[in-house]
Specification:
five-stranded antiparallel β-sheet; HIT family, subunit A; binds zinc ion; alpha+beta; binds guanosine-5'-monophosphate
Length: 113
């Protein structure tokens, strides 16, 4: 198994989880881009949102994002982002949602270079 998020989700790479259930884990981004920056990751290897077809897993992921936002205390607001594929700028090819907040986040999109 070479996928880094599979290794984290399976416990092969020891990681502090801020949330975990049967289907999903969540942990802090190694290069945080806001005061709070958590990645919500399905335990099963799904490459990106493009490949996500299981509605139960989709619900578990979105519910975990909400649980993380609450446990991080993001009552002033937050953002949930997923990057998919080359045009989406996805770096890690294992589906993950970024839950970011803890400060004003500015405009959602920066213009393409
Ligand atoms: P993407 O561009 O694929 O949406 O974002 C991947 C994110 O994963 C990046 O924000 C990056 O900092 C984070 N990341 C990459 N490798 C690791 C890792 O080994 N551990 C953690 N905690 N985050 C990682
Ligand atoms: Zn994986």
């Amino acid at each position: 198994m070479t996928c880094v998020f599979c290794k984290i989700a399976s416990g092969e790479l020891p990681t502090d989880f801020v949330f975990a259930d049967d289907l999903v884990v969540a942990f802090r981004d190694i290069r945080p881009q806001a005061e709070s920056h958590v990645l919500v990751v399905p335990k099963a290897h799904v490459e990106s949102l493009w490949e996500l077809e299981d509605p139960a897993l989709a619900g578990a992921i979105l519910g975990a994002c909400a649980a993380v936002a609450r446990s991080e205390g993001l009552s002033e607001g937050f953002r949930v982002i997923t990057n998919a594929g080359a045009h989406g700028g996805q770096e890690v090819p294992h589906l993950h949602m970024h839950v970011v907040g803890g400060q004003p986040l500015g405009p959602m999109l920066t213009p393409p270079a």
